[in-house]
Amino acid sequence: MRSKILTTSVENAEDERIKHKLIKSHYKFSIASENAKYEGYTSEKLLTSFEAHTVPIYWGNPYVAEEFNPEAFVNCMDYESFDEVVKRVKEIDEDDDLWAYMVSRPWQTEEQQKSSERLKEKYFKFVEHIFSQPLAQVLRRPEGFHPGNYAKWWFLCQKHFSRGNIYKFFTEPKLQFAKVKRKLSSIISRFSAKKLETIDVNDFFND
After folding, report:
1. How many helices (H) and strands (E) does the chain have?
2. Rounded to whole angstroms, how far apart are CA atoms 190 and 135?
């Protein structure tokens, strides 16, 4: 019965975050694993676990404890192996007081909340500053030789690239790698020698 109610609730939920929250809310622990381990990369996965009132088992951002209260979740990044993580989860599971303590902790410490507010304020000021400037001042140009060439090639190619051509480019069976490589080399050399004023993607489809 419980499973049926859960399934119906999840199916009726329109927001993906609400779906994840509903699924996790029936358990003491929930896995909050990012798609990749990367510094500063913390997505909604940890937040939906908090919202579901579970103890998150988190893997991903090595510095996640700088943004969220380390007392509120199991941080896999603190352990040498997943065996140690499992051992810690068992300890929490067998101690109701410890589990209740963790699940009742604020998601962020007081200092983390202040830091988040400062960053948010800084972000909004940054965006406001961009849109309050004249266009000529907002425009930024990278320094170096290649950025100018990339911009030039991009605008030249825009004359001939279309969604249809891009789809054709990636889906037509006759466009084998060797053929594309050969044609691309020819077009680039002609363009570099200034024998072509524009690059036409249709050249890839002409025999």
Report:
1. 10, 3
2. 36
